[in-house]
Amino acid sequence: MSKKDPYAALRYKEFNIFLLVRFALVFAWSMQFIIIEWEVYSITKNPLSLGIIGLMEVIPAVSMALFAGHIVDQKEKKGLLIKCIIGFTIISTGLFLLTWPETAGHISSNYILYGIYFMVFLGGIVRAFIGPTVFSLIALIVPKKVYPNAATWSSSTWQMAAVLGPALAGFSIHWIGVHWSMCLIVGFSFVALIGLLKISKKPILNPKIGEPVMQSLKEGVKFVFQSKAILGAITLDMIAVLFGGAIALLPIYAQDILNVGSEGFGILRAAPAIGAFITMLITAYIPLSKNAGMKLLVAIFGFGVCIIVFGFSTIFWVSVLALFFSGVFDGISMVIRQTILQLKTPDHMRGRVASVNSMFVGSSNELGAFESGITAKLMGTVTAVVFGGTMTVVTVLIKGISSPSFRKLDLRKDLEAHENEI
Q: What is the rounded CA–CA span in Å between residue 330 and residue 328?
């Protein structure tokens, strides 16, 4: 049985290629975001500018999300993902040109800043399509009986890339500068594109091809809001990411509070992803389907506590440990949430459900960055981070007390049902 095989999904060749593609894409994207944060804060020295980066990406990501989900459910997934990667490559090339030293010699820093914001905005449009496409493609590469295992390995790959991307970003800024670091990102996007070409085209499982857009969107949103397990999971995660967005303020901590420079910045940025990655490797052997609701509540509560500790810390190694354990709890949360989505979403609605999830969770990263930038400007950096962690803890307590059914959520029956499918 695949539930006893921690490598079940890895026994499918195309899934291994998919993992390579996802690693290269997430690595490039996360590295690019860190370099942008560093460059923008270096230009402005204003915490609000870090929040604006998030806002510039979240506006198109949210406004396009439902429409993107409809398109994903109507189109062939591999071809759509190829177009997304090409779009990302064009954006990365634009950022490479904007950060060219010669560009700075001919254009004022304000125009460079606006150019970076514009590229981030375009990236938000691309991102609106990438999330639902990737989520839908996984389900077409592996059989249903290994969905939970595939979700674990896919999330682990995401976290591995999120570990190495930010870490390399911090070190590469120190070694070769912002401009040539952007060149590396363009290279990794080509790696993702070449790998994707080795995956075959997949069938479109939606029986309602040509369905009116508004009817399609309404059906997707209605399904999510009627599924208490899906709605509860993505809402909890959204709150945690929205209020626990300390990561967006790491350039301030690295430069002005902990005084550890670009190398220390890379370590701080990688710490939570390392914790999450280790956790996900463990969950490949120890499933989280039993008492999933309670485990999700505990994980997000622990995440909030870690953010509070990080906010107060003025000692580098304490800050690193706090971020590391925030990643451990975040990894548990991600695996449970992805398993809920994969097990409880019908094949023909994966694009739309993933889009709603993107609106709730994915875009809350950028909204969290904006919230952190605003609160840091108004309250001060430390107070803003502690406030965010406290709000996360309070939200989890309210959800746990007010929703007994979510506390009792157990995924073992759903998992057994998929295990028995041929």
A: 5
Assign domain 2-197+211-419 to a CATH class.
mainly alpha
Is 20 in contact with 188 (CB distance < 8 Å)? no
* Domain edges within the chain: 2-197+211-419
Cα 148 from chain centroid?
18
CA pair distance 284, 411, nearest whole angstrom:
16
Chain-centre distance of CA 319, in angstroms?
Answer: 22
8 Å CB contact between 145 and 418: yes
Q: What is the pLDDT of residues 375-419, one digit of tens each?
A: 777 888 888 888 888 988 998 888 888 888 787 877 766 666 555
Query: What single string gives the DSSP state of each residue in 325-372?
Result: HHHHHHHHHHHHHHHHHHHHS-GGGHHHHHHHHIIIIIHHHHHHHHHH
Contact present, 13 and 144 (Cβ < 8 Å): no
Give, for 228, the enclosing helix (H) or strand (E): helix 228-243
Most confident of 172-176, 184-188, 266-270: 184-188
Q: How far is the CA of 373 from the CAs of 131, 162, 273, 309, 383, in angstroms? A: 25, 22, 21, 19, 12
Cβ-defined contacts of 405-410 (< 8 Å, 24+): 405/228, 406/228, 406/229, 406/232, 406/293, 406/297, 407/293, 407/294, 407/297, 408/293, 408/294, 409/229, 409/232, 409/291, 409/292, 409/293, 409/294, 409/296, 410/289, 410/290, 410/291, 410/292, 410/293
Report the distance separating Cα 207 and Cα 210, nearest Å: 9
pLDDT in tens, 411-420: 766 666 555 5
Q: Using CA atoms, how far apart are residues 149 and 405, in angstroms rounded to an integer?
A: 25
Q: Give me the sign of the Cα torsion angle 266, 94, 357, 80.
A: negative
